[in-house]
Amino acid sequence: MENHITKQQSLKRFQATVAWQNRILSLFGCYMYLGKQQVSYRIVPICFIASSYIVLTLYCAVQAWGDMGQVVLSIVAVFYALIGVTRLAVAISNPTGCYRSIQLAEEMYRRANGSHPAECVVLAKYTDMFCKSVHFYTLCYLLGVTVVALMPFGFYLFRGERFLPLGIVFPFTDNEDSYGYWCTLAIQLGYMLPGTLALVPSQNIYFAFVFNICLQYDLLIERLKQLDERIREPDSQTEDVNSMSIREQLVEIIQLQQLSISYITHIEHFYQLQSFVEFICNSLQATLTLSELHRSFWLPGFFVFPVAVGQMLILCILGTLIEVKSDHFTDQLYNIAWSEMKLPEQVMFQYVLSSAQQSSQLTCGGFADINMNLFVAIHKKIYSFFMMLQNM
């Protein structure tokens, strides 16, 4: 009974953490993860903010041509809008897929054996990791945005300098005079704050999907351990009822494995375009920022570069975690006493093994698996592109 309660508590905690992400998204008219509505009229302002931000940023880059620092700041800033537009486009174009992703994640909690302590520990472990990741990422992101938003006021009060955090200006105003500066700063903060509130929950929900994939692999590993214990029991093959018990365990493992493969394939199909755009944007941000920092002391670069690298690092760590869990699952398969099973059961086990050897992974637009190897490869390309810019 206590284990069953633990299972229900993990599910409720997972649902509660996802729920407050949905409450924030609903402020912008996005109900895709709730299944109640697809979109509402409130999505129009956030779409306008994203699209107008891109237009204004490109306009400012053209106007500032000749001032390399301002041009780079404008180009770097537009990549944030492109990431936001991609996330909106993916969610709006496939609301059924969004809701289906949440349903499948919750289904894995319900499929866990609430009477088995080890499986309840797995549920509690990944729910805790998900909740802590959401809180940590949200805190860091909001803290960073707060620092950037307050920085212009600090520069003005303590040094008398006028500093703009983003690479956009209000058209037909002169930033050199007081009125133009404060108007432009107000516009920039108006873009920054809603954009942050919309981007953070979309990233947090991605954490839910990735940790749920890892949870599925650990549940499969626990089921394999239970199967191995049953096979090694002295009377496991003496009675038909015992043999059927092994067969039933194999059937449950096959069903759970197929659901896991289907879930990973669904998440991969859903996020591969978004992942590709994010890696491209963050890579270009890191390259341009590094080039400008090498040329001169550029204060915004000390914020842009760590954020771009950190975002890629987070995605690659999560992808590597999935690969590690997939490898652990395969290793556990090889440790099963399969030779002690009857021939029909060995055929079933062979099917599980062959499916595990063709495991699905999350990819960057279908071009490369998302893992630490991709992170290293991207940063080699960043360095090569940086050196090319220095020689131009």
TrEMBL record:
Transmembrane stretches, start-end: 43-65, 71-90, 134-159, 179-200, 297-322
Keyword Membrane carried by entry: yes
Domain of life from the UniProt record: Eukaryota
GO molecular function: odorant binding; olfactory receptor activity
InterPro entries documented for this protein: 7tm6_olfct_rcpt (IPR004117)
Subcellular localization, as worded in the UniProt entry: Cell membrane
GO cellular component, one term: plasma membrane
GO biological process: signal transduction
Keywords attached to this entry: Cell membrane, Membrane, Olfaction, Receptor, Sensory transduction, Transducer, Transmembrane, Transmembrane helix
Pfam families for the chain: 7tm_6
Membrane topology: Multi-pass membrane protein
Record keyword Transport present: no
PANTHER family to which the protein is assigned, alphabetical: ODORANT RECEPTOR, ODORANT RECEPTOR 19A-RELATED
Protein name as catalogued: Odorant receptor
